[in-house]
Structure formats: C-alpha cells, structure tokens
Queue: 2 jobs
Job 1
Amino acid sequence: MSQENKNSVQTTGHVWDDDLQELTNPLPRWWIWGFYITFTFAVVYWLFYPAWPIGGSYTKGVPGFNSVTYTATTVDGKQVKKTTHWNMRSQFMVDMNELTALQKKYFDKVASMSYEDVSKDAELMQFVNSAGKTLFSDNCAPCHQAGGQGKIGFSPNLTDDNWMYGGTYDQIHTTIEGGRRGYMPPFSQVLNDEQITQLANYVLSLSSEPHDPVAAKAGDALFHGEGAACYYCHGPDGKGKIQLGSANLTDKIWLWANIPADKTQEDKVNDIKNVIYNGLAKGVMPNWNVRLKPEQIKLLTVYVHDSLGGGK
Ligand code: HEC
Ligand code: HEC
C-alpha cells in the first residue's frame, strides 16, 4: 500500500477552512456489537420485568417469570402468603422474611440453652449483643440511659456490680419479667426533726462520709431500735436486702440522695433527711412480661448480665 492510500479516508465531501474535512469512518466493531447487545438486553428486560409506565400503572412483565412470594402480616395480625410480580417492595419483604427466620433461629437457640452456655457461645453472644442493644435502646434506655449507666434520682446504674435486687441471671430475669417497686415509708409522722438529723448522720457514717459522731451515735440507736426500725428493711449491718431492694447504705453508691454531688455537709445531711422524711415510692421498674416475649426477656437478661457488665 502506498503512503498516499494509507492516508486516504472516506469523507462526506464537506470541507471547511480549506482543509477541515468531515470523515465517515465506520464505527469500531466492538462498539457496534456492544450497541446491539445492550439494545437486545433492554428489549428482553422490558418484556420480562416491570418497566414502562402506562397511565397510573405500568407494564408488569411476563407473569410467572419474575414472581416473588413472601409472608406478610395483615393489619389484624394474620400471616398471609402473597405472590406478586417482582418489585422493590416485594424483594424487601423477601429479605425481611429471611432476616426474621434467621433471628428466630437465634432466639430459639437462646431460649433453649442455659444462661451459662449462651454466655460461652461466642457466635451466639454476637447476636445477643446486637439484638440486646436494639431491645435495650427501644425499651430500657429511656430510663436507664443508652449505656445502662442510669441516672441519680431516677434509675439505677446497670453497669456496675452493685445490685439492689441481685445480679445473678435468675434475679435479673425476675426483675425484668415482673418489674420492681422499691418502697420505703415516710417518717415525717413518726420521728421528729432532731431524730431524723441523727439518723442522717448515722447513714453518712455507714459509708465513711463526714458526719457528726455524737448525732450518729444517737442515730445508730434509732436505726436499730423499734422507734425507726430501719434495720428491719436495711438489715442490722445497713447493707440492704435484695428481696426488698432496700439500698445498701454502706457503699458509696447512691440512687436517691445525691451525696457525691452535694458540696456542703449541710446539703448531704439534708439530702438524706429528705429521703427519711418523705420515704420513697418513685422507684418503679415496669414489668416487661406484658410487652416483651419470653425469649426477648431472656436475651435481655444475658445482655444486662454479660454485656453491660457487673453480673454476678
Ligand atoms: C420507666 C423507667 C424504666 C424503664 C423503662 C426500665 N427500667 Fe429498669 N428500673 C427502673 C427503676 C426506677 C429501677 C429501680 C427500682 C427500684 O428502685 O425499686 C429499675 C431497676 C432495674 C433493674 C434492677 C437493678 C438492681 O440494681 O437490682 C434491672 C436489672 C433493670 N431495671 C433492667 C431493665 C431493663 C432490661 C429494662 C428494659 C426492658 C428496664 N429496666 C426498663 C426504671 C426503668
Ligand atoms: C419498709 C422498708 C424500709 C424501711 C423501714 C426503711 N427503708 Fe430506707 N429504703 C427502703 C427501700 C426499698 C429503699 C430503696 C428504694 C428504691 O430504690 O426504690 C430505701 C432507700 C433508702 C435510702 C436511699 C439510699 C440511696 O441510694 O439514695 C436511704 C438513705 C434510706 N433508705 C434510709 C433509711 C433509714 C434511715 C430508715 C429508718 C428511718 C429507713 N431507710 C427505713 C426500704 C426501707
């Protein structure tokens, strides 16, 4: 081939500015094939799958070819099987059904195993942690806070190893299932202000907080005597009773009297006096047996015990 032939290409014959020509090179073969293949694919796809809008509806594709079957729950709670042509919603329902089946498998496993065995099963614990976190944020976090750390004056901390109602699996389970309602009677009618001040000083002495030793000694006698009879609920050692959820008064953990936040000695005494004067009835932990399924309560028990920490 001569040099001239190689350079000669077909043109449309249009020429601008003396030498600017419009070429008519054929399209590359790969491009042509690509075009035919995508074109064919599109036509086949339009026929088989939902594609073109027509008025308020759309073409549904070849019936039976792209059908999707899933289980749906009706408004009145019945489970029904539905078959429709493929669409995003039905595919979503299929995915949800699969997820629910997988979740059910794990929940059944938790329900059938002992707490100790669940705790030792690393794969199952991953599920407990993620499902437990969701259940906890939905139901418990409004009171116990997102991380379970609780709030003084409102709800107890679930992340420490201090338990008013006991920290074993069974005790935590009983708490969640049936709820708890700590009750301490008001003493405003029974004791005078001086006696209540003495008792407050004794309570402070139990956890080695600064206190008036003379008042505390008189408070000790009242605490263990029949006049105030605090020992009846808090125990002779002041450590509380888990059957009653009566606070352990000998540790530095406070739920109602906010001693750590009090700046002056007077504030500390007054905080405790308030509790003794008015009693306590606001510690209400709801019962969850009416709102959660047994397997959800069991899973939450493991979550609180193992994952929030501090379980016994
Ligand atoms: C309406 C607020 C509220 C909600 C919601 C709530 N709790 Fe409680 N919970 C409390 C209070 C208040 C107490 C302390 C009861 C008392 O003082 O007698 C408590 C106590 C507990 C205890 C016992 C702590 C101890 O020291 O023995 C556990 C365990 C517990 N809750 C777990 C849960 C779980 C799990 C959930 C979610 C399913 C939950 N709570 C939802 C308010 C709540
Ligand atoms: C009928 C049983 C009962 C008697 C009697 C009783 N308490 Fe209590 N007390 C409780 C319970 C239960 C709680 C915890 C309430 C809760 O958490 O919902 C509590 C809580 C307290 C607290 C709050 C601790 C905190 O963490 O903030 C103090 C202080 C206290 N009691 C002191 C006393 C003193 C002093 C007496 C005697 C005058 C007394 N109690 C008598 C049942 C009792």
Job 2
Amino acid sequence: MNLKPLLFTAVLAAFPAFADEGSRLDDARQVANSLPPKLLQVLIEEIGKGGPENAISVCRERAPLMAKAVSEKTGWAIRRVSLRARNAKAVPDAWEKAGLEEFDQRLAAGAAAAGIEKFEVVAEGGQSVFRYMKALPTQDVCLVCHGTPARMTPAVTTKLRELYPDDKATGYEADQIRGAISLKRPL
Ligand code: HEC
C-alpha cells in the first residue's frame, strides 16, 4: 500500500497554514500562466491588423485592464515588473528586484526562462502575505517593441519615445527575461 498520499494528508491536517500555502501556490501559478498567453494573442492580432505601432496600446492599456479584471475575480494583486522598466509603475519593490536578479542568474546558469518562478510567505504590515512571481521571457514578437533599434520600425521608435521619454525596455534579444508577472495576496 502506498502511504505517501495518506502521509501528505496528515501533514496538511497538522499544519493548516502549510496547506493554505500549497493552495495559494497552485492558484498563483494558474493565474500567472493564463494571463500572458491571452495578452500575447491580442498583441499578435493587433500587430496583424495595424502594425506594431498600433499594438502599443495593447501593452499600454489592455494589459493593465486584463490584469485588473483577473485581480477582481481572483483576489490577487497582479502587476508586471522589470529591472529595465518602460513604465515607472513597473519598477520592482525590494522583494521583486531581488527575485528578478536571481532570475537572470538562473537563466545565465542554464535554466529555461519560461519555467523560472519564485514564491515566499513574507510579513508585510503585520500580515502574512503570499508572494509569487514568474519570469516573462522575450520571444521574437516582443522585439518589435523591446528589441535593438534594428528590430524596431521608425514609427514604433517615435511613438515609444513620445509616450515613454525615460524608456529602459529596449535592446533585448530573444530568450532573455523581459520582466516578471508578480502576484500577492494575504495568506
Ligand atoms: C506592440 C509593442 C509591444 C510588444 C510587441 C510587446 N510589448 Fe511589452 N510593453 C510595451 C509597452 C508600450 C509597455 C508599457 C506598458 C505600460 O505603459 O504599462 C510594455 C511593457 C511591458 C512590461 C511591463 C514592464 C515595463 O517595462 O513597463 C513587460 C513585462 C513586457 N512589456 C513584456 C513583454 C513581452 C514578454 C512581450 C512579448 C511576448 C512584449 N512585452 C511585447 C509594448 C510592447
């Protein structure tokens, strides 16, 4: 007889906080895995319809709206962060910054960008908060707006310069880490 499931159940029953943490992790992963592909689909559609300069609004307006809708549905605070942020709102906090630096090190050490994640229960304002983040790797399609100047059309460069005079989010190649989706929720 395999006792492993029984043992696991016993451990969860003895430590409810641990069980809670496990379900939070499953939940966070589900949200972090479902949002980026939906956004990517809309991006590709809009680029197809009106070129990359037309799709800038997808990353600028639709992405936060989509995150807000999922946030309201699930209770997770959701945002995107980057060590080289385009929007100042995406500048990471201390936990996210340490995570993003660790992600780059793990990538350099040979980990596949798409699987890199981190989670931790932290104390924030006297409360236990479950934090989760997952790397957002660059794919070829990202480079029309986040790549080297050679990859970007003059129309995109001009529009980005207008909207984000302090833009730090260009110069990427494929398979780097553009940033992360970051989630948190009280435990
Ligand atoms: C059509 C242009 C365009 C494409 C293509 C694009 N982005 Fe962006 N991206 C933007 C813009 C514009 C912003 C700033 C959005 C804002 O103001 O919040 C942004 C912001 C981000 C951010 C938030 C952090 C920051 O720097 O502000 C991440 C992460 C990100 N993009 C990842 C990606 C990834 C990964 C891809 C490819 C799957 C991608 N983007 C494709 C235009 C684009």
